[in-house]
């Protein structure tokens, strides 16, 4: 009885909280990297790492802070909350040491910007890629 109650409570919680979507980390076709470490990914999206290992500049694209995709990306792949990421960008901007990533308004715009910008990285809902971009895995 107690186990059934806990299973019911967990199921109910999942219904109200929603489930996180699966996310693909995407890059421009000119990026030679096949994988990226979680630490390197955090450095890239916090705007501390600005060049790929081959020396090409990294161009970071993100969705708005309040979008579900951005929130899920931040939590799942970076292990931080969106407001923590925003604070990192603000520190870079206000210290004069860097800039914020480029914000896009939709997944379509993300796909197009990553495809046309050399060195670009971004994220999309799983399976939302095309032949003009590719995925990169996180180790």
Note the topology.
Blueprint: H1 2-17, E1 23-28, E2 35-36, H2 38-45, E3 59-62, H3 68-78, H4 82-95, E4 102-103, H5 107-116, E5 120-125, E6 133-135, E7 137-138
Parallel strand pairs: 2-7, 3-4, 3-5
Antiparallel strand pairs: 1-5, 1-6
Question: Could you explain the architecture of this structure?
Answer:
It is built from 5 helices and 7 strands. The strands form 2 sheets. A 5-stranded mixed β-sheet has the order 4-3-5-1-6. It has a two-stranded parallel ribbon with strand order 2-7. By secondary structure, it is an alpha/beta fold. The chain has a single domain (21-138), classed as D-Maltodextrin-Binding Protein, domain 2. The longest helix is centred in the first third of the chain and has 16 residues, at 2-17.
Which terms summarize this structure?
D-Maltodextrin-Binding Protein, domain 2, 139 residues, 5 helices, two-stranded parallel ribbon, five-stranded mixed β-sheet, alpha/beta, 7 strands
Helix content: 40-55%
CATH class label: Alpha Beta
Low confidence ranges: 4-18
Q: Which fold name corresponds to the CATH topology?
A: D-Maltodextrin-Binding Protein, domain 2
**CATH architecture heading:** 3-Layer(aba) Sandwich
- The CATH superfamily name is Periplasmic binding protein-like II
Radius of gyration: 17 Å
The SS-based structural class is alpha/beta
Q: Report the end-to-end length measured between terminal Cα atoms.
A: 41 Å
β-strand percent reads 15-25%
């Amino acid at each position: 009885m107690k186990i059934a109650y806990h299973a019911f409570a967990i199921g109910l919680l999942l219904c109200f909280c929603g489930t996180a979507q699966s996310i693909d980390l995407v890059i421009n076709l000119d990026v030679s990297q096949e994988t990226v470490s979680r630490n390197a990914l955090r450095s890239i999206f916090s705007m501390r790492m600005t060049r790929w290992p081959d020396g090409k500049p990294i161009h970071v694209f993100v969705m708005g802070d309040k979008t579900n995709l951005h929130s899920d990306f931040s939590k799942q792949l970076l292990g931080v909350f969106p407001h923590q990421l925003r604070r990192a960008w603000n520190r870079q901007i206000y210290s004069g040491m860097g800039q914020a990533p480029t914000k896009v308004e939709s997944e379509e715009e993300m796909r197009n910007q990553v495809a046309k910008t050399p060195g670009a990285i971004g994220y999309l809902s799983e399976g939302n890629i095309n032949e003009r971009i590719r995925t990169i895995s996180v180790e």
